[in-house]
């Protein structure tokens, strides 16, 4: 089951197919294709989840953004989960 069962396997397969070639991955297109575009963090796990408050978002970003670029990349997210 993908991402707590929220994403459809067919959507994931189609998104992965579109970025098979080297240098073809576009995260915005990928997220849109698999159904993650426009969702905030908690809504990725349940569509009925509440949005994070501004304070929670700031704490989350501060905890995960180890390189200071204002974003949490996949490696940063993985490190955060393992901490």
Kindly list the characteristics that best describe this protein:
46% helix, Recoverin, domain 1, 4 helices, globular, mainly alpha, 83 residues, single chain
Write a structural description.
The mean pLDDT is 82. The chain is globular. It is built from 4 helices and no strands. It has 2 domains: 1-44, EF-hand (Recoverin, domain 1, Orthogonal Bundle), CATH 1.10.238; 52-83, no CATH class. With 83 residues, the protein is mainly alpha-helical. 1% of the residues are buried. The two termini are 24 Å apart. It has helices at residues 9-18, 27-34, 54-64, 74-82. Helices cover 46% and strands 0% of the residues. Keywords: Calcium, Metal-binding, Muscle protein. In muscle, parvalbumin is thought to be involved in relaxation after contraction. It binds two calcium ions. Belongs to the parvalbumin family. It comes from Albula glossodonta.
**Largest sheet report:** none
Question: Could you report the average pLDDT, rounded to the nearest whole number?
Answer: 82
- Uncertain runs are none
Q: Into which percentage range does the β-strand content fall?
A: under 5%
Please give the count of helices.
4
In brief, what are we looking at here?
The chain is mainly α. The chain has 2 domains: 44 residues, Recoverin, domain 1 (Orthogonal Bundle); 32 residues, no CATH class.
């Amino acid at each position: 089951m993908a991402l707590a069962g929220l994403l459809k396997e067919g959507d994931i397969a189609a998104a992965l197919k579109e970025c098979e070639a080297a240098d073809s991955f576009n995260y915005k297109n990928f997220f849109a294709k698999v159904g993650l575009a426009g969702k905030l963090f908690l809504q990725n796990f349940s569509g009925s989840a509440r949005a994070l408050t501004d304070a929670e978002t700031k704490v989350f970003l501060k905890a995960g953004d180890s390189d200071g670029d204002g974003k949490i990349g996949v490696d940063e997210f993985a490190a955060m989960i393992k901490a």
